[in-house]
Design goal:
By secondary structure, the chain is mostly helical. The protein is built from three helices and no strands. Helix 1 packs antiparallel against helix 2 (about 25-75). The mean pLDDT is about 75.
Length: about 100
C-alpha cells in the first residue's frame, strides 16, 4: 500500500509540473481540468471499492448465519460436543467360538 501511495504522490507531482510547464493559460486550464477529473474518478473508485468490501462482508455474514444455526441445532458446535465424541475406554470382552463337533 505504501508503494501505491508513493505512486499517487508521484502522479500528482507530474500533473502539477505539467500544469506549471504549460505554454499558455488555455493549455494550463485544460491540464487542470483533466487533473481534477482524474482526482474525482479516483475518489469515486475508492468509494465504490469501499462499498464493495462492505457489501461482500455482509454477504459472507449472511451466508454463514444459516450454517452456524444448523451447527448449533445439530449439537456439533455446542459446549459439550467434545465430551460426547470421546467415549470412555472400555476393556474388550474376550470372544471365542466353541468347536463344532
Amino acid at each position: 500500500m505504501a508503494q501505491r501511495g508513493g505512486r499517487l504522490r508521484g502522479a500528482a507531482k507530474s500533473w502539477s509540473l505539467a500544469e506549471h510547464a504549460a505554454v499558455d493559460e488555455a493549455e494550463r486550464a485544460k491540464i487542470h481540468i483533466a487533473k481534477m477529473a482524474l482526482d474525482a474518478a479516483r475518489a469515486d473508485f475508492t468509494e465504490a471499492e469501499k462499498q464493495r468490501r462492505i457489501d461482500e462482508a455482509a454477504r459472507d455474514l449472511a451466508r454463514s448465519k444459516p450454517r452456524r444455526r444448523l451447527r448449533s441445532m445439530r449439537g456439533s458446535g455446542g459446549a459439550g460436543a467434545d465430551e460426547c465424541r470421546k467415549a470412555p475406554y472400555q476393556k474388550p470382552v474376550e470372544y471365542f467360538e466353541e468347536p463344532i463337533a
